[in-house]
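Page 47, continued from p. 46.
Same chain as before, 206 aa.
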Amino acid sequence: MCSSDLGTLWIYWGGHGAVVDGQRTLLGSEASGGDLSGVSLTDLLSVAEKSKAKQILVFLDVGFGGVGREGEPLFPSTEVPPLVTRTDDRVLVWSSTTAGEPAYIWPAVEHGVFSYFLVGALRGWADGQIGAAADGKVSVQEAQGYVARVVRQVGGGEQKPGKDTRSTVNAWELATGALEAGPSKEDRKSTRLNSSHQIISYAVFC
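Result:
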């Protein structure tokens, strides 16, 4: 979804990924072990950067390590190349995983763990969650810090969302206005995944 010129271009991809010809690749629904057809992240970003948007936000709830959302093997395992920060300062690429770890799904809410807390961050859950007082705004820095912390907590520490360290990008405001509070730390502790990556107990946060 994108707004008019000088607005914001939002791109979200949730699903499976793999490393194809040394590149992180977003796979289509028809992909299989013998057919890793998809769109390379490099090609996607090259197209996005042709936009006249003032900001380009790319959210990826994708694992690239060849394993499914419950840890099952899907594709041949390959070393995952690092996610390189874009030279275009209009672009933020925020990935649910750092290397080859799975991007887990949360059966309780029928979403990826990353996607669930990403949406929560945009609704206000991240406001004031990384040291500063809540001010009715959610910055990229707040959102990334909050999501990284709670995804590690709920997922037991294995899934590690990426972070962009550029100060200009971290200052972007993702949400403002009437924001809502997120689940408490005690509630999140009751939602951790066990070693087989299934929910052992949960509360549905609506």
